[in-house]
Specification:
With about 220 residues, the chain is of the alpha/beta class. The protein has one domain: Vaccinia Virus protein VP39 (Rossmann fold). The chain contains 5 helices and 9 strands; from the N terminus they run αββαββααβββαββ. The strands form 2 sheets. Strands 3-2-1-4-5-9-8 form a 7-stranded mixed β-sheet, with helices on both faces. Strands 6-7 form a two-stranded antiparallel sheet. Helix 2 links the parallel strand 2 and strand 3.
């Protein structure tokens, strides 16, 4: 099988920032994509819902699984590290072709080349369905983490209709409601997606949040 491109891998700048916070224990990435986290955590467990992308993760450590129903026992992992989808235009999943457009699409659907799994958040625009999905995903993640486990989350806001969408704030508040205590946060300047009609309107940084599960 040829390598399948992924449109939103961890950026090198984010991974560099994460390294000092990695656990010596068992790590889970619940939204693994093609497993780029393996460059700094080669023995983590990579959970990815799309087979083609899971196939690119390290062999022996990849699981084709649903983040809403993780295939792991309660209190299995010492740490989780992940970059969730941002609810931006990369979630577009229409298939019409408009040759008059002078940009190419860089979305989850278009890079995979088929419809996404129904439980793939890569097709969810920012809104109620996105927020509902991630509330359930983080609740399920909490189940498989040990007490005192840490969770490193990479997420970003985005611009829609020239207004900032506070996606990061939603995740921060949701995780705290679920019993995750924030112990560190930071901003990382990264190259942003250069595709799309609004490519000139980009939030200039991504966020990294670190949480500890107290119970």
């Amino acid at each position: 099988m040829d390598m399948i491109r992924h449109p939103a891998k961890f950026s090198d700048a984010v991974l560099e920032k994460i390294v000092p916070f990695l656990s010596d224990g068992l790590i889970l990435d619940p939204f693994a994509g093609v497993g780029k986290l393996s460059s700094i955590a080669p023995k983590a467990i990579y959970n990815e819902i799309e087979y083609e992308w899971a196939h690119e993760c390290p062999r022996g450590f990849a699981v084709v699984g649903d983040a809403l129903v993780l295939p792991f026992a309660d209190r299995t992992f010492d740490q989780a590290v992940s970059s969730c989808t941002y609810g931006n235009r990369m979630a577009d999943h229409f298939t019409d072709h408009k040759p008059e457009k002078n940009y190419r699409r860089n979305t989850y659907t278009h890079t995979l080349g088929r419809k996404l799994h129904p439980h793939n958040s890569g097709q969810l625009q920012w809104g109620k369905a996105y927020r509902r999905f991630h509330f359930h995903a983080w609740t399920e993640l909490r189940r498989v983490l040990k007490p005192k486990a840490t969770f490193i989350l990479n997420v970003s806001d985005h611009i829609r209709n020239k207004e900032r969408q506070y996606v990061s704030q939603f995740h921060a508040l949701t995780l705290m409601k679920l019993g995750f205590n924030q112990i560190w946060c930071g901003r990382v300047s990264t190259p942003r997606n250069g595709f799309g009609e609004n490519r000139e309107l980009r939030v200039e940084y991504e966020n990294i949040f670190i949480y500890r599960l107290e119970k």
